[in-house]
Prior knowledge:
By secondary structure, this protein is of the alpha/beta class. The protein has helices at about 30-35, 90-100, 110-120, 125-135, 140-150, 150-175, 190-205, 210-215, 230-240, 280-295, 365-380, 390-410, 415-435, 440-450, and strands at about 5-10, 15-25, 45-50, 60-70, 80-85, 105, 220-225, 245-250, 255-265, 265-275, 300-305, 330-335, 355. The strands form 2 sheets. It has a 7-stranded mixed β-sheet with strand order 8-9-10-7-11-12-13, with helices on both faces. The radius of gyration is 29 Å and the shape is flat. Guanosine-5'-diphosphate binds next to helix 9.
Amino acid sequence: MISPDTIFALSSGRPPAAIGVVRISGPRAGAAIEALTGRMPAPRRAMLAKLRDPASGEVIDEALVLWFPAPNSETGENVAELQLHGGRAVIAGVLGALGRLEGFRPAEAGEFTRRAFENGRLDLTAVEGLADLIGADTEAQRRQAYRQLKGLLGDRAESWRGRLVDALALVEARIDFSDEADVPEDLVRPALEIVRKLRAEIADALAGASRGERLRDGLVVAIAGPPNAGKSTLLNRIARREAAIVSPVPGTTRDVIEVHLDLDGYPVTLLDTAGIRPSTDPVEQEGIRRAQDRAGEADLVLWVTDASTEGTHVGNDTEMEGVPSGPHVWTVKNKADLLPSAGKDENESGLLDAFILSAASGRGVEPLLQALAVYSGKFFLGGESTLITRGRHRKALEATSEMLDRALSEDAIGREDIIAEELRLAARHLGRLTGRVDVEDILDVIFRDFCIGK
Ligand code: GDP
């Protein structure tokens, strides 16, 4: 499977920048250093050298050159790293010179990491952890991803798999030597004891799954309410608060706008849904339907109303018409600046489920954000230490657990052949989790998310 090509790519960000890092991996990575510098650095020691175009002999740049001979490198192959000045022409010159060397080609997206996986430097869960670490927007996401990269899930899955293989060996011994007098009668009982413990541990891990998965995606908060209540104004007000913003991403439809926030380290996605109101226009109806769906899927809805046109007490039946019923709903009474007096400050502690604020002036918005940060902290509590961060992990462990159930079921009592088969299948599902077995079909999906140079 290992391609004999030597691959190269710019692994640092988009030029121009102070420094640009070009990574080279493959059998001829060392030859690239020689061709460009005429020298070889000691392994893992930085060497300052002039880089010349081997064709013309012209100096392209002066760079720090690092050499990591196989197998002790990121990819498990020979790896060279060039730390150049990060200008466009410098980088283009070096990449061009590398491309003209025999046996070299530009790397495809995720190819360095894929080679690391294929050479056993990373298991699949670590590959996913690496992708998540690079993609992490907030502290909590970073911590979760780092732990996964370092094997929190992978090591656990491997140890489960090892114990499962032990149990399987006991059952198989019982099958193979059942006629021989000196094989202990009961090898199956200790095997099933191991299986029972495993099943309990996997059930524990599955119990925390949803928090880990959600931490990758973020808490979803929908801003909904009647037209002209000030929903867009509120979203913009929050988005302008620079510290909070991660990246404004347009929604999948023109009816829903998303803003990604980092609140005290927790990821929160804020959705502005189109004004929810009765309409006969089919296009508008479609927009309203999508907005309602989106709000219905949210973890929390901020139901924004115009406080200047109604009473400030909560629970007015007419104004609550159309409130999504599924998720938790907080009432936000906007345009407090238009109210004559009292009531503006009553919720500044942020403890109540109703907020009175002015999106236009910003007054009262901070307590709302503080309450959101507290809410997301509770929402994700314990999520960072969960093992499972993706649906893929959950499915593999659910399938494993199902096989263990079958091995322990009544149907399997006294049937060592059935028990052995279920344990073999269970081990296979665990192996898929870390990528030890049978994963060609999922590799492309996982590596597709990487960009070039990783
Ligand atoms: P949406 O339809 O709910 O998104 O409402 P918009 O955000 O478009 O706001 C509707 C109108 O209300 C606009 O003219 C805003 O300037 C105004 N508005 C929004 N928030 C406030 C506020 O806090 N105070 C006042 N006085 N006007 C506001």
